[in-house]
């Protein structure tokens, strides 16, 4: 009896399902919450996460939008033994709309298909603060200030970080950053998804 092998289509659907599941968990969403946000059925998400189904391009776009990635990211193969991201090939992550001088530049330093660990280099312009829109999600984050000065607010706690200083915190509490230097502040952050 020959061992059963998967077709290219089955391998692709399996990879998409793994990416969706990992991304959903990174966002701390249940299958139902994720399905609601993507405006697809619970059954579709559940089936896809089990490596089955035949999602349309429209569906893939909806799923990718909720995950904050491009459709191509869902189709990329799993990370190999070594994933290299060249300095001139860094992916720029989306940032909230706002005045151009206040936009943060967020560069993904880890491969785009990686969802368990993301390392991001953020350049915060002078005067930047996201106090009005704090972050809150299920993850653990560790940051190091490369240059400038960063005010880190985590719940009621405030810490000013100088170059070389690091902080690690759970992201379940509302948290925000402010650049308190008179030059751009550069922060290297590593985010790991919380498993449920």
TrEMBL record:
This is Helix-turn-helix transcriptional regulator. SUPFAM superfamilies: lambda repressor-like DNA-binding domains, RmlC-like cupins. Keywords: DNA-binding. PROSITE patterns: HTH_CROC1 (PS50943). Residues 20-74 form the HTH cro/C1-type domain. It comes from Occultella gossypii. It comes from the Bacteria. It holds the Pfam family Cupin_2. The keyword Isomerase does not apply.
């Amino acid at each position: 009896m020959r061992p059963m092998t998967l077709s290219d289509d089955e391998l692709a659907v399996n990879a998409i399902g793994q990416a969706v599941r990992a991304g959903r968990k990174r966002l701390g969403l249940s299958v139902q919450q994720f399905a609601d946000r993507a405006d697809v059925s619970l059954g579709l998400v559940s089936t896809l996460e089990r490596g089955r189904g035949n999602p349309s391009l429209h569906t893939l776009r909806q799923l990718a939008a909720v995950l904050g990635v491009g459709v191509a990211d869902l189709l990329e193969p799993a990370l190999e033994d070594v994933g290299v991201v060249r300095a001139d090939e860094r992916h720029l992550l989306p940032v909230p709309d706002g005045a151009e001088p206040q936009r943060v530049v967020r560069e993904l330093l880890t491969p785009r298909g990686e969802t368990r660990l993301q390392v991001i280099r953020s350049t915060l312009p002078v005067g930047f603060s996201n106090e009005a829109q704090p972050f809150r999600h299920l993850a653990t984050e560790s940051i190091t200030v490369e240059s400038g000065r960063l005010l880190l607010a985590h719940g009621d706690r405030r810490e000013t970080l100088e170059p070389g200083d690091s902080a690690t915190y759970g992201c379940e509490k509302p948290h925000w950053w402010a650049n308190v230097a008179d030059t751009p502040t550069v922060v290297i952050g590593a985010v790991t998804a919380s498993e449920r």
